[in-house]
Design goal:
Blueprint lengths: L1 H35 L12 H12 L4 H6 L1 E11 L5 E14 L11 H21 L6 E3 L2 E3 L1 E9 L2
Antiparallel strand pairs: 1-2, 1-5, 3-4
Amino acid sequence: MRMKSIMLALGLLIPAATFAQNAETANATQSEQTASAKPSRPKPEYPGGKAAMDKFIRENLKYPELAKNEGVEARVMLSFVVVTDGTFRELSVKNVDGVAVIKPGTKNGEIDPAVKEKALDELKQEAMRIAKAMPKWNPAEIDGQKSSRRVFLPIRFSL
């Protein structure tokens, strides 16, 4: 009977000791990883974050006259690559959506298609001007290494 008690006690103690050792090893490994982890920023970001970028756009956006006069609203989606020094490459208009004409006195918001197209071109040009006027961005950073990444930036024009 005494032998069974000793075996039972050992059977309970050995797994508990192994578990404790594994927990200590896991904690040490986690601490080592945390201590050696390098800073990461998976996406490029505007200096000061989104709120600072929104403020920059609000303060610098100039609604094009034709678009304003014709009541044309839209969202212009820009595409660009923020390279490792924070500058842009491959800046372009990806698309324009959410187009609306809110000009009073028009039937169902309809205006001359050529005028509408010219107004949309002006919105695209203004969105590009805003992006070019921005300060350098903070590039993406993975494990302490700066990295170039593509960004899609919507510029909303609304009256």
